[in-house]
Amino acid sequence: MNALERVRTWLTARRRFEFVATVATVIALTAITGALVLIPKSALPKARPEAAVAQYSAPASSLDPQVGEVRRIMESFGPVVTQHVSGEEGQLSVVFGHPYQRGDVDTLAREIGPAVDTVTGLWGADWPRAAVVAVASSTAEFAALTHATGPVSTEVAAASVSDSFLPGSRPTGQRVVFAADAGRRLGAEGLRDTLRHELTHIAARAETADGSPQWVLEGFAEYCAHRDEQLSLNQLAPTLTARAHSGDLPADLPADPAFTPTATNNAALAYEQAWSANAFIATQYGEPTLVALYHDLATGPQTPATVDTALRRTLDLDHATFLARWRDWLRAHVP
Ligand SMILES: [Zn+2]
Q1: CATH topology for 2-207?
Q2: For residue 40, what are the contacts with CB-CB under 8 A and spacing of at least 6?
Q3: What pLDDT digit, counting tens, does each position of 30-57 carry?
Q4: Domain boundaries, the chain
Q5: Span from the CA of 262 to the centroid of ligand 1 (angstroms)
Q6: Distance 47 CA to ligand 1 centre (A)
Q7: 299 or 14, higher pLDDT
């Protein structure tokens, strides 16, 4: 039973970068999960987080316990190929796919080490620093691997899932699942960026409460995915840049509904705005400040007042001043 799926979708291709938007959706949030997240941290049994921390700090000598389950699911859809990747401290990652997807499996296996380093460089080392990655061969297999209970959109490129977990404990069963045609539609660069994006969600999952603002969760993951790249605002946020060119700058941070692609909703713009707000904070105030703000705001649903408080605490700016500075930064980076 998974608590939440964070889903990365692809939208239309722009220039040489196929802009990949990400959508966090609750696909299989069950009633019991909803109840569990309401349990105050102080009421939790002490043994769970301690046991999980011990597991993380010890050198990993065996694969994630979910690996057998992933293999069983995938073998029911056809022959399976795997690539194992060892981390510097013995962490073991594994990439699953089917024989015809060997190229994507090899690409992802090659990218795991750099992706773990990129995420750790931002988030710190307090996460497993390894990944279970699966490339599905069909939407049915994607659904099985992500525990999806409803139909899976063909616009979904990848998702990260975890088992339900109590706040304060370590999530188990975390994996990244790629759609069958992710490699063909995204290319090697897109697979790399998507892996980094999803691993950011996995690293932060234990500290991320459901219902937190999407501009925080998705913007942070998108910032991390691109933090090692020397790309311009125009390359990473073409829609935002085009609008800024004509003087149309964001009036506010994007609200959660803006991240859902619909016929009338430009979700790509919301992702670009979220990325740019996070990039603005990281470049102007430093990455540790961005991480501190994430910890402040990924605690669940926020109100304008609580966002204002968090911005004052971490950036020493009220909400209105933050927006003004963000817009100034965007203006300065429009070519
Ligand atoms: Zn995401």
Answers
A1: Zincin-like (3.30.2010)
A2: none
A3: 222 222 222 222 322 332 232 233 233 3
A4: 2-207, 214-333
A5: 17
A6: 30
A7: 299
